[in-house]
Give the backbone structure.
Amino acid sequence: EALRVLAQKYGIEIEEDGNPDKSKEERQHLESLYLINQFAKDFFIDQMNNTDIGKSVGLHYFKDRGFREEIIERFGLGYAPGDGKSLLNKLKEAGYDKKLYEELGVVKNGRDFFRGRVMFPIHNLTGKCIGFGGRILKANKKAPKYVNSSEAQIYNKSKILYGMFFAKNEIRKKDECILVEGYTDTISLHQAGIQNVVASSGTSLTIEQIRLIKRFTPNIKILYD
């Protein structure tokens, strides 16, 4: 992916091994998934900043946690309305393929998957939105506190670290990675000026996540709750 970005930037044609038509079709499929996630991210941001309930519930939650506007904007935080159809209707209006947004899991069984939750977009190393974490705001013993996007071609929870896109340069610079548990832990430390921080989104640290950190530094400091 990084090679393709650079090639496109400098007008270099890449020769693909194997079946070029199949390779092109796969790239187009992946790009469509990224576009839908970006559309959903923009939708959640708009809902939080430009609707009464988004401002009074979603934005209020983040500001109550002490997050400043610039950090909210930087991490692309948002709000998913609770009616269950808002994002679905917007996706239909925009003409996106039903199979693709169901593959991503932003829509399940004809309803928005994320409902009445504050939203944390998850990015890959190049900054593309690959998934979401959503935190419930009302106490509900039947509903999990956090839910994540479904496993998809562009998102595998065990292979990613939340905040790595924002932290990778500072990790290299400091030659150390601070590993925390959750989204808000990461954001709070970044806001405090400690930016070599990523989260494993839980305590189930995987080999793939360790390998991802090893690409930038061999030094890890673990600060779980």
Observations:
- The beta strands are 78-80, 107-108, 111-112, 117-123, 129-136, 146-148, 177-180, 197-199, 220-223.
- The two ends are 35 Å apart (CA to CA).
- The CA atoms of residues 86 and 112 lie 7 Å apart.
- The chain is about 45% helix and 15% strand.
